[in-house]
Prior knowledge:
By secondary structure, this protein is an alpha+beta fold. It has helices spanning 3-22, 31-59, 65-78, 82-89, 96-116, 134-158, 164-183, 190-224, 235-251, 268-275, 277-294, 314-318, 320-335, 362-382, and strands spanning 120-122, 128-130, 259-265, 300-302, 307-312, 347-353. The protein has 14 helices and 6 strands.
Amino acid sequence: xxxxxxxxxxxxxxxxxxxxxxxxxxxxxxxxxxxxxxxxxxxxxxxxxxxxxxxxxxxxxxxxxxxxxxxxxxxxxxxxxxxxxxxxxxxxxxxxxxxxxxxxxxxxxxxxxxxxxxxxxxxxxxxxxxxxxxxxxxxxxxxxxxxxxxxxxxxxxxxxxxxxxxxxxxxxxxxxxxxxxxxxxxxxxxxxxxxxxxxxxxxxxxxxxxxxxxxxxxxxxxxxxxxxxxxxxxxxxxxxxxxxxxxxxxxxxxxxxxxxxxxxxxxxxxxxxxxxxxxxxxxxxxxxxxxxxxxxxxxxxxxxxxxxxxxxxxxxxxxxxxxxxxxxxxxxxxxxxxxxxxxxxxxxxxxxxxxxxxxxxxxxxxxxxxxxxxxxxxxxxxx
Length: 383
């Protein structure tokens, strides 16, 4: 008996048993997928053990013909079925049902072969021999292999071809091992390739699910950071940037350059009560667009139902006085425009520039902007 082959099988079996224990720990797989991965690893381990003892009986003279036949029957029955197990492990449900029926037919044929030796038989010397209908077993193995390739392609499409090279390499391992064993029965690479494929496929599925989870988290994070109505940044983003600015004010106050503009919409409650909330939403969007048009290089935050704050930076900071004048002129023009309330883009704006000599936190700047905003609101009401 080849000692190298013995070591290989022991490693394969121990790897499958290790993964069987590990699959339920530190994993993001669902309960159903965990169950099927465990089943796949156990089946692969049993198949590898059966293959080993079948080879052992071929090499060592014995009279255990019936036991040899049963072991080979188990190996031939479960080998094609592993394609179903691996597919089911990654969430495939619909396509695994018809394939399970096909693999059940293989088991029935194997049972019949035990009597007539059509697929395989054990000769008088206790050595495995391929029967005249051995090609039938090869057909089932081919169907199983083709199905696994089909599953791999679907997974590649599902992951938008991320890590598709890894999937191709895993596929090549399976194909190489199975093909070598089919061509030459003395090359016992069938279950070696199956065990390696099962282990690598488990790792691949874990990575795929992590990637999908991170994409989902990033999408949800992006949604939470933006106001769903106006698409500008949300209160969550605003709170986060305040924390950063407060930190920067404490650590590097001299290098900071920013200003704050607080905008408060006029007449929103009247519009909601008179024209309805849909009209009110359109009014908010329209006013928000005008606010954004004046500060194209700075982030705009919707911090309340009718309140917006702009952290004025970059080019806008260099032109803050011009922006302030243009925005105030626009607000005065809109409020005196001869049109209905809903057609006006009426809001009051208050500005404040950060001063490192007296502002110890962001709230200090915001208070000045808030005072100026209410001052402007009073002027607009007078108009």
